[in-house]
Design goal:
The chain has 142 residues and is α/β, with parallel strands linked by helices. It has a single domain, classed as 4-Layer Sandwich (Purple Acid Phosphatase, chain A, domain 2). Helix content is 35%, strand content 19%. The strands form two sheets. A four-stranded parallel beta sheet has the order 1-2-3-4, with helices on one face. A two-stranded antiparallel ribbon has the order 5-6. A hairpin with a 2-residue loop joins strand 5 and strand 6. Helix 1 packs parallel to helix 2. The longest helix has 17 residues.
Length: 142
């Protein structure tokens, strides 16, 4: 059994970037199948308007992630500043495990902090204010 752990972030998948999407789908069907775990650390999608969005390439990505998790590869996903509305339905549809904004994992015996990074932009006060407001609205809408 492979014990390799892979990390990716900021792919910004969208209909307007077909080559990036093609390469990611190829990664999911080839390289990722050999891993023990995959961590997606935010901004998998360039925008995410909700878990009920099945427009291309979202549905194909969902299907490929589901095939990967069904094969036994653990996939963990942390929301980014572009796709923070990824939610429980997406997780259920794909088999991925959603992570908190800060997550500490045991990486081969070393405690390792995972975060997308937009929380670290503390000098960008307008962005941080927007972030607080938009995440609060998302919670209130559920």
């Amino acid at each position: 059994m492979n014990q390799e752990t892979l990390f990716i972030s900021d792919l910004h998948l969208s209909l307007e970037k077909p080559e990036i999407t093609r390469r990611f789908l190829d990664f999911l069907t080839n390289r990722a199948t050999k891993a023990k775990a995959i961590y997606i650390l935010g901004d998998l999608f360039d925008t995410w308007i909700g878990d009920d969005d099945f427009m291309p390439p979202n549905n194909k990505v969902r299907q490929q992630l589901k095939q990967l998790t069904d094969s036994g590869v653990q996939v963990f996903l942390q929301q980014g500043n572009r796709d923070f509305l990824l939610g429980t339905r997406f997780a259920q549809d794909t088999g991925v495990t959603l992570l908190d904004e800060y997550a500490v994992i045991d990486l081969y015996g070393t405690p390792t902090l995972l975060t997308h990074g937009d929380l670290l932009c503390t000098d960008d006060l307008p962005y941080q204010a927007f972030r607080v407001k938009s995440h609060t609205l998302e919670i209130e809408c559920k």
